[in-house]
Design goal:
- By secondary structure, the protein is α/β, with parallel strands linked by helices.
- It has helices at residues 44-50, 69-72, 75-80, 91-121, 135-142, 229-246, 259-272, 287-298, 305-315, 329-335, 356-363, 382-387, 418-426, 442-455; strands at residues 7-12, 21-25, 30-35, 61-63, 87-89, 145-147, 154-157, 160-166, 174-182, 185-191, 214-218, 250-253, 281-285, 323-325, 342-346, 370-373, 392-395, 398-401, 405-408, 434-438, 460-461, 468-470.
- The chain has a seven-stranded mixed beta sheet. It has a seven-stranded mixed beta sheet with strand order 7-8-9-10-11-20-21, with helices on one face.
- Strand 3, helix 1 (44-50) and strand 4 form a beta-alpha-beta unit.
- Helix 4 runs antiparallel to helix 5 (135-142) and helix 4 (91-121) packs antiparallel against helix 8 (287-298).
């Protein structure tokens, strides 16, 4: 360690988008910021199983910026390895992490069961594969969640004080303005978490911290500029009206948390304004999305005024949009019999698993249907292959020609674009001597670093996974 005796280790989301996790340690305290799952690509499972290769029992506490799985998905594994400390997050994040981890654990158990079954059927004589973690382990982890209020300096340890500020990414998403002390030295480390765009519906605008000695900034879209919201809304209207005219459906792979709720608000607004003249019947085919929506309505105080007004009008029957939730697999299968007039939102958001694959199987090969992507599609995922105009893709062992019209909605991204990220950074009035670029693809971070140097004159560093830096 340096003379300050404070170090920072990059455990994930270094040179890639998923697996966010960072460890801060001094001689007196050791804690983790995020403990995310690696997602996308063939190496993800191996990365998740080899992660947390340090003494987790030595951690005093952990913090989680928000409830997306790439930021919280390995927390149950942390607990299973012996971590017993508190896990801090905003009140809404704690509520959402609970349902996200229980759902993730069920997926882990099913995936392990299915793989072991296939292995036995093929007489491969391989050892049984254990799930990444179990539902029981997830519930043990959930018991450690501890809510921290917004915008209030809170002592988590005698040498660590944190202030949570809303980043406008999803409900409950926060940056951590973290003051870490050792002896006479104090350093202000700011973890951006994921930063949303300003002027989005549902969530408030991102709030910049006033100062930082060290900044970790996400860079998912650090090399591009999103389309305007008006363009995006126009595309969504076009996709819906086109499917109505041609007798098809609209399929939207949507993250159960954040994107589904935001799309509901946008649809309500478009119907309320008369922009969608033929409102489809909406099916939210995800028990997890239903639970996340219930929590969102519970924490409406954390959303913007426009969304609150739209939800109130819809509940009062003033906006004619019918929304159906599919609780069971049988409910989900029944949707496949509907050939026209349906708008189906289902997970997973990158089409790697879940009910969305069934709906793509039944609609991707139909030229009359519309496929609408409203979020980031990681490299190596089915969603990326469809967006990249691959002529045919394999779904559930079937080769499907891509005949449906494919739309990519840029402005609905929960991540800020380059101007949005730089605006967030510009709001930090006392600029950090060093800024670490994380949570982005390598080529993106190169471009983002150049833009930061041009716009702000700040020094940036792109860390490698496993790298330890002295602060």
């Amino acid at each position: 360690m340096s003379q300050s005796n404070i170090s920072l280790t990059f455990l994930g989301a270094a040179g890639e988008v998923t697996g966010s996790s960072y460890m801060v340690q001094t001689p007196d305290v050791r804690f983790l910021v995020d403990c995310g799952m690696f997602q996308g690509g063939r190496e993800a499972d191996a990365k998740n199983r080899s992660a947390l290769s340090f003494d987790v029992k030595a951690l005093d506490f952990a913090m989680v910026t928000h409830a997306h799985i790439d930021h919280c998905g390995l927390l149950p594994r942390l607990t299973a390895f012996g971590f017993k400390g508190p896990i801090y997050g905003s009140p809404a994040t704690c509520a959402l992490v609970k349902i996200m981890l229980e759902d993730s654990a069920r997926i882990q158990e099913k995936d392990a069961f299915d793989r072991n079954k296939r292995s036995r059927e093929r007489n491969e004589k391989l050892p049984e594969l254990a799930p990444l973690y179990s539902v029981e382990q997830a519930r043990e982890c959930i018991a450690q969640l501890t809510a921290v209020e917004w915008d209030t300096p809170t002592a988590l340890h005698k040498n660590v004080t944190v202030t949570l500020r809303n980043t406008g990414h999803i409900l409950g998403s926060a940056s951590f303005d973290t003051l870490v002390s050792h002896g006479s030295v104090s350093k202000r480390i700011v973890f951006s978490g994921d930063v949303g765009s300003p002027n989005r519906i549902l969530v408030p605008d991102p709030v910049s911290p006033p100062a930082a000695d060290v900044l970790l900034i996400e860079s998912t879209y650090g090399n591009r500029k999103h389309r305007t919201m008006e363009e995006t809304r126009g595309q969504l209207v076009e996709a819906i009206e086109r499917a109505h005219t041609n007798g098809g459906n609209v399929i939207i792979p949507a993250f159960a948390l954040g994107r589904t709720q935001e799309l509901m608000i946008v649809l309500l607004d478009l119907v309320n304004q008369g922009k969608i003249k033929n409102p489809p019947q909406v099916f939210i085919d995800s028990p997890l999305a239903e639970k996340a929506t219930e929590i969102t309505w519970k924490f409406m105080r954390d959303t913007d005024a426009e969304s609150q007004a739209l939800i109130a009008a819809w509940r009062a029957g003033k906006i004619p949009l019918k929304v159906n939730y599919s609780a069971t697999p049988a409910d989900s299968r029944a949707i496949n019999a509907i050939k026209t007039g349906a708008l189906i939102m289902a997970g997973s958001g990158m089409c790697e698993a879940g009910r969305i694959r069934h709906h793509l199987l039944h609609n991707l090969g139909r030229s009359e249907s519309s496929i609408v992507f409203a979020g980031y599609q990681g490299e190596g995922t089915l969603g990326r292959a469809i967006i990249d105009k691959t002529p045919s893709v394999k779904i559930m062992r079937q080769e499907i020609s891509v005949r449906a019209q494919v739309y990519k909605l840029g402005a609905l991204s929960a991540h800020a674009d380059q101007p949005g990220l730089i605006s967030f950074m510009r709001g930090i009035k006392q600029a950090p001597p060093v800024t670490y670029l994380v949570h982005g693809d390598p080529a993106v971070m190169v471009d983002f670093g150049k833009a930061i140097a041009t716009e702000l004159g700040w020094k940036t560093v792109t860390p490698a996974i496993g790298q330890v830096v002295d602060i």
